[in-house]
Amino acid sequence: MTQLLLALLDRVESVPLVMEAAAAAAARLGDARITALVIRHPATEGLMPTEEVAGPAVLGRRAATEEARLAAIRAAFDAWSAAGGKASFDVETGETEAVVARRAGPGELLVIGHAPGAAREAAQAMDVALFSLDLPSLFVPAGASHSFGRHIAIAWKPSEAAERAIAAARPLLLKAERVTVLMAREENVAAPPDLSPLQAAGIPIDHRAFGLDGRSIGAALLEEAHRAGADLLVMGAYTHARWKEFLLGGATREILRDADLPVLMRH
Fold this sequence. Notes:
It contains nine helices and ten strands. By secondary structure, the protein is of the alpha/beta class.
């Protein structure tokens, strides 16, 4: 069972969304603890080391802007806590990749607010969590329900990534009221995943084979998850070469861009 949830707070407007999602996941997991993490970026980050660009005045303004962002995020977190939320709050200074790698550990679930045009920090954290640390990550889009995990959809295509995603989601799956396995007929899926532990626990499992009917696989998965009534989608991340996904798209990139329900991924 996942014991620790690391909630990345990168934008003040996403604080309630991310914290409510982390709280919902913690409630489904039972005794999970939440740490809200805010990354303070050094004033010199991203600047060329030239006197004209990185002079004292420029660095002072950047540092002041960053402190104002952190203060606003802390105020939003405190408001969430005052309404009954329970989590610790940490600030660490450094570049996103290094901080996430340092703070996220085995057995943790990274919770990230996701939306089109989301801050670069969230995208970097996704990359580190999924591909460098091999951690499951829960992406929560703007407008997603704060309550999820009752009916979980699994995007199934035989692959190591899909199997690892199911393994990572197992604590949530065992708390679900229903599970639906989504399989695209065009993917020539030979057999559904082994969900015998869920069946032994008495959790109803449906298998839905669907045709693409002119839809992309990402759009089809999202539509079929909604048709099934699911409130959370579990899937493997980037089952093809990452450079190919970047150039050609793919279900993972499309779902991260267009998802309107929480998505739990693992590479």
